[in-house]
Design goal:
Layout (H helix, E strand, L loop, with lengths): L1 E14 L2 E6 L2 E7 L6 H13 L3 E2 L5 E3 L7 E6 L20 H17 L4 E3 L7 E15 L4
């Protein structure tokens, strides 16, 4: 799995000009799923993202996690994170097919909810418009192949 995680003051996702998910303070998570990802991968990534300490404490140091600040998550499926960019036209064979990706995408959302977080989301495979206000800016790349 790969995730681009942006610390935001607000984020939303629209489908057909209708907001289907929106958060205030928290993380916008663009989530890509590989063919060999599993429930173990889901749990590992949810733990890493939900536990990362990138919110400022009273001394201005990045020392607080999502729970400490009452943050929320907006999770958006992003198969393009596994694009093959060897040519000018990206290839997407490195991304999981929907029969694998959809259950793992939904499991990731549920895993974050099970950890006590409010989670909004887009719709897998839909044409979405994502808006966000990056706070910091702080943007992190998580790749479960690199742990």
């Amino acid at each position: 799995m790969r995730a681009i995680v942006t610390r935001v003051t607000s984020a939303s996702v629209e489908i057909d000009k209708k907001v289907v998910g929106a958060i205030d303070r928290g993380f916008l998570v663009l989530l890509g799923i590989a063919p060999d990802d599993t429930m173990e991968t889901v749990k590992y990534l949810a733990d890493r993202i939900c536990g990362v300490r990138v919110f400022s404490d009273e001394a201005g140091k990045m020392n607080l996690n999502l729970e400490s600040v009452g943050g929320k998550l907006l999770v958006v499926s992003q198969f393009t994170l596994f694009a093959d960019l060897k040519s000018r036209r990206p290839g997407f064979t490195g991304a999981a097919k929907p029969d694998i990706a959809i259950p793992l995408y939904e499991a990731f959302i549920q895993e974050c909810r099970d950890r006590g977080f409010e989670v909004e989301h887009g719709s897998f495979g839909a044409d979405m418009q994502v808006s966000s206000v990056n706070d910091g800016p702080v943007t992190l790349i998580f790749d479960t192949k690199e742990h």
